[in-house]
Amino acid sequence: MTQLFGIPVAVILGQLMLGLVNGSFYAMLSLGLAVIFGLMRVVNFAHGAFYALGAFAALLGLQKLGIGYWPALVLAPLAVGALGILVERLLLRHLYQLDPLYGLLLTFGLALMVEGSLHQLFGSSGESYPVPAQLQGVFNLGFMILPIYRAWVILASIIVCFSTWFVIERTRLGATLRAATENAPLLQAFGVNVPLLVAATYGGGVALAALAGVLSAPVILVNSDMGSSLVVVVFAVVVIGGMGSILGSIVSGLALGMIEGLTKVAYPEASNIVVFVIMALVLILRPAGLFGRE
After folding, report:
1. Does the model's pTM come out above 0.90?
2. Distance CA 263, CA 260 (A)
């Protein structure tokens, strides 16, 4: 069997593929954070809670209303996005003229409230979400057996991430969103409803987190702590890519997932900290992040 540094190549390729699955979730979650921070300058610590809400919305939709996986991919992010708009209109809009620390504290408190409510209602043991019939089965890649559903997660994440990047960076709507961050009063003078635009931006960012939650539901147990255990890593991914950088979040999320996978082969004990080690190095060498602006 071919080896690289004493490790079978098949094992390395398999871990790279599994790391790409994790990286797909990192990319989608960090993308939502980057959209919210880049366009609103809000550090959304409640992002993990919205991720969990998306998974629970899909699970409850299936159990209580008979809503299957494919409708849930649309309905759950829309429902959580609407909740996000409500949060922005009722709470966050009062903090824009204050220090950004207030927004972080508010969203941190909101995350604790959501996670505590989910824990109270559903417990901590977690529930499984069935893989849809159309995505059951496996691919034989030669070096590993890859479940079809995990391949779908990678494909869906890449499509969503780069579609979001295209909308923000290459369309008239994206130009309007970026203009709102540069000079909101001037944009409003031209007749653009800036408060509505800001609310829609926050709703869209948390909808991306909810979509990642729906995609993750058949992969992991849906539980109240699923967001808190992931959001710290995702914040590190955003810092590495560059706070507010859409492309940086996508590339860093996918790349760091694969680096994490490789670390599990070479030095498993470091797999839980490798992302934070890279973050520390990036902050020392390039504080703005790999794709961020000084």
Report:
1. yes
2. 5
Task: Point out which residues pair with 4 in neighbouring strands.
Answer: 7
* Cα(82)–Cα(88) distance, integer angstroms: 10
Which residue reads 């069935």 in tokens?
A: 130
Give a yes or no: residue 194 inside a domain: yes
User: Could you tell me if residue 278 is inside a domain?
Assistant: yes
- In sign, the C-alpha dihedral spanning 221, 222, 224, 227 is positive
**How is residue 208 written in tokens?**
């991306």
For the chain, what is the largest distance between any 2 Cα atoms, rounded to a whole number of angstroms?
Answer: 68
Cross-strand bridge partners of residue 3? 8
The domain containing residue 7 runs over which residues? 3-285
Domain count, the chain: 1
| Closest by Cα among 14, 5, 1 to 264 | 14
Name the nearest CA neighbour of 241 among 75, 81, 37, 20.
Answer: 37
Residue 291: inside a domain, yes or no? no
Residue 22 token pair: 């994790």
Summarised one tens digit per residue, pLDDT across range 194-239 is 888 889 999 999 999 999 999 999 999 999 989 987 888 999 999 9
Tell me how far apart the alpha carbons of residues 232 and 138 are, in angstroms, rounded to a whole number: 31
Answer yes or no: is pLDDT of 98 > 90: no
The verdict on residue 213 lying in a domain is: yes
Check residue 277 and give left, alpha or beta (phi > 0: left; psi -120 to 50: alpha): alpha
Radius of gyration in angstroms for the set of CA atoms belonging to the chain, rounded to a whole number = 19
* Nearest CA-CA partner of 160 in 288, 253, 293: 253
What's the rounded Cα separation, in Å, for the pair 211 and 246?
Answer: 17
**Which residues lie across from 286 on neighbouring strands?**
none
